[in-house]
Write a structure and sequence with these properties.
There is one protein chain. By secondary structure, the protein is an all-alpha fold. The chain has a domain of 186 residues. It is built from 12 helices and no strands. Helix 4 crosses helix 9. The longest helix has 32 residues.
């Protein structure tokens, strides 16, 4: 049944808002909302039905953009005002997503080989931490900076396409999370346009590969994703809280974990 475009826009808004929270995957949210397969199919077969796919993707992206714009200020304020509790909220969400991903791998008989693929995922995410990072002070000009933002957009496209990988977490790994939220808040198009263009190119390049990988090698692919998520905990961990911050961070960590587990339960049902 063809989705109504109002429904598509609302689902785009929810996915867009979820992408702002490290640990919450826009791809996973799209799966829960029942729109992921249509998104992947529309991108991978774009030129077979340009008009239909363009309309569908345009409505979805418009909804996602509205979600990003509406919630970016709130999240930026929260991260700046309560940095440690918010990071522990994100950590809880990341930890809570691991059982969901394991279930999606549909492992019938566990093999030690899967651990090697998970370790490969860990190695990938740790290596991302060594990439050059566009700084806030350099986000307003220079060909080199724009080229780096374009390349960063291609890398971020991995998180846009793969369920289980948070787009905002990828921004955290690249050291670009708060800078990007500030750029959205300030409508800094010199920063956002090359990043978005890189993302579009990356999505076009990666979608067909991801579709084939998840179809032909779902277990291997998901264990690489699990490794990515586990490795990301090292990058997101903000340090140990002290004093009254300890119970508060425990509370936010638990809230993040429980929220993702509830999403997982809803997805399973």
């Amino acid at each position: 049944m063809k989705l109504g475009y109002l429904s598509v826009a609302l689902k785009g808004l929810i996915v867009g808002a979820s992408m702002l929270v490290p640990g919450v995957s826009g791809g996973t949210t799209a799966i829960i909302l029942g729109i992921y397969d249509r998104l992947i199919h529309s991108v991978s077969t774009f030129f077979k039905d340009v008009r239909g796919n363009l309309l569908f993707l345009g409505v979805f992206c418009a909804g996602a953009l509205i979600g990003i714009v509406l919630f970016s200020r709130v999240l930026l304020y929260a991260v700046e005002t309560w940095p440690l509790p918010m990071m522990f909220l994100f950590l809880g969400a990341i930890v809570g997503s691991v059982p969901m991903l394991y279930r999606q791998a549909k492992v019938e008989r566990f093999s030690p080989v899967y651990i090697l693929f998970a370790l490969a995922g860990v190695a990938i995410v740790l290596s991302l931490g060594y990439l050059p990072k566009p700084e806030a002070s350099s986000a307003v000009g220079g060909f080199g900076t724009m080229a780096m933002l374009f390349v960063s957009g291609i890398i971020i496209a991995i998180a846009l396409v793969l369920p289980g990988i948070s787009t905002s977490h990828m921004l955290l790994v690249l050291g670009m999370y708060e800078t990007t939220l500030c750029a959205i808040k300030a409508a800094n198009f010199l920063y956002l346009v090359p990043l978005a263009l890189g993302g579009l190119v990356g999505v076009a390049l990666i979608t067909s590969l991801v579709e084939r990988a998840l179809t032909r090698y779902p277990r291997v692919t998901y264990f690489v994703i699990i490794g990515f998520v586990v490795g990301s905990i090292i990058d997101v961990f903000p340090g140990y809280p002290t004093g009254l911050g300890i119970p508060l961070c425990v509370l936010t960590f638990t809230a993040g974990y429980v929220a993702i587990r509830l999403i997982s339960k809803f997805s399973k049902e």
